[in-house]
Specification:
By secondary structure, this protein is α+β, with helices and mostly antiparallel strands. The protein folds into 2 domains: 195 residues, no CATH class; 84 residues, Immunoglobulin-like (Sandwich). It contains 11 helices and 13 strands. It is elongated.
Length: 382
């Protein structure tokens, strides 16, 4: 019986001592990415009776509410960060003019042009422009752009709430900055070169993550403060040019080929109406025509696109045709030559008749002068 009481007393003593031992055992901390041997070696150099909390790098995870507490967190809780974008396709009268108008509108709203260009797709003139305007002027800008169009082909707007992402980045940034501060403290306590190099590598990595996080936060701030609007432009007004392979020195009956050099704007397919100035017309795109009578001719071309837009190009006295060979034309040419020669002779005689008194006086003076010279010569000889 006495033996049993002794055993029970020993068990009670052991039970009382076990919690104290467990409580005094150091907890296994979850340290950062510094190699464990660095922490162990640096902890071993400290006094066992007063372990340094900085060496263990125990950084307790922050709660979400703590990260957004304070004035900054309350501001983002009440003001959402919305990224708005617009995409518009327009049909306009003149692409370059509308691009200038949109540029001026962006400047008026304290915005700016991201990019713009004009090019041709086949026979159509098209362009594009991307602008950024302050978020509060997004709706006004969209209305102004619609007002510049002959027709709005398509329009779409999108909105993206990036508030949550921004808050998460803020929390991540605070943790990274706290980690960097702990590494800097470790660097001050480090004595071995290997320890310093290991901590420096972790510092560089952490600094890179801090810069990347800050860059993303700044991007979200800029994109939520301004809205992106992309505009695609197509020209509705037509501009046309045409040429002929021969224009002057043509003979009657000689074929001439007309070609459309350029069509700017409009919507294909196109229809054509040629007026050659001699009463003949054609609806071919590249017609061939022969003039039967000599003379000068005015040529015009009217182009109509698929939506009824028209443009007309007129070229006055564009074609000159001379008579071709025939007996009648040869005789007529000879007669015209004789008439011209007769006119020339008549003009000569008229001029002589008008100036005859002058010629008589001049002739008398010359005759007197010659006789006087002859008389003087004879006196010298005698």
């Amino acid at each position: 019986m006495k033996m049993l009481m002794v055993i029970i007393g020993l068990l009670l003593v052991v039970a009382l001592l076990m919690p104290v031992s467990c409580a005094s055992a150091p907890a296994k901390d979850e340290s950062m990415s510094v190699p464990s041997y660095v922490i162990e070696e640096m902890a071993a150099r400290e006094e066992p009776s007063a372990p340094s909390p900085e060496i263990t790098l125990k950084i307790p995870p922050a709660e979400y509410g703590e990260l957004v507490s304070g004035d900054v967190g309350q501001a983002w809780a009440t003001e959402r960060m919305i990224v708005r974008t617009g995409d518009v396709w327009l049909v306009v009268n003149d692409v370059p003019v509308v691009i200038d108008q949109i540029t001026g509108m962006a400047d008026g709203f304290d915005g700016y042009v991201v990019s713009s260009r004009v090019w041709k797709e086949g026979e159509r003139l098209v362009g594009s422009i991307a602008i950024r305007v302050p978020a509060e002027h997004f709706d006004d800008s969209m209305r102004a752009i619609r007002g510049m169009a002959v027709e709005v082909t398509s329009e779409s707007t999108t909105s993206k709430d990036v508030t949550e992402e921004y808050v998460d980045l803020s929390a991540e940034l605070k943790n990274l900055e706290a980690t960097e501060e702990q590494y800097l403290r470790l660097m001050e306590k480090a004595e071995e070169v290997d320890d310093m190099l290991s901590i420096q590598r972790e510092l560089s990595r952490t600094r890179g993550e801090i810069e990347q996080t800050k860059g993303r936060m700044q991007y979200l701030e800029r994109t939520s403060a301004t809205s992106l609007i992309e505009v695609r432009l197509e020209q509705s007004s037509l501009g046309i040019e045409f040429t002929a392979d021969k224009r002057r020195g043509l003979k009657e009956g000689q074929n001439i080929r007309f070609t459309v050099d350029q069509i700017a704007g409009g919507f294909p397919p196109y229809s054509y109406e040629w007026d050659f100035g001699d009463g003949d017309i054609s609806t071919d795109e590249t017609p061939t025509h022969a003039y039967r009578v000599d003379g000068s001719y005015t040529v015009s071309l009217t182009v109509t696109d698929d939506r009824g837009n028209t443009a007309t190009e007129i070229r006055s006295d564009y074609i000159t045709v001379i008579p071709g060979w025939s007996p009648g034309s040869i005789a007529r040419g000879a007669w015209d030559g004789m008439v011209t020669f007769g006119h020339v002779l008549a003009n000569i005689f008229i001029w002589i008749g008008i100036f005859s008194p002058v010629w008589i006086v001049i002739g008398g003076v010359v005759y007197w002068w010659r006789r006087y010279r002859r008389k003087k010569r004879a006196e010298k000889e005698s």
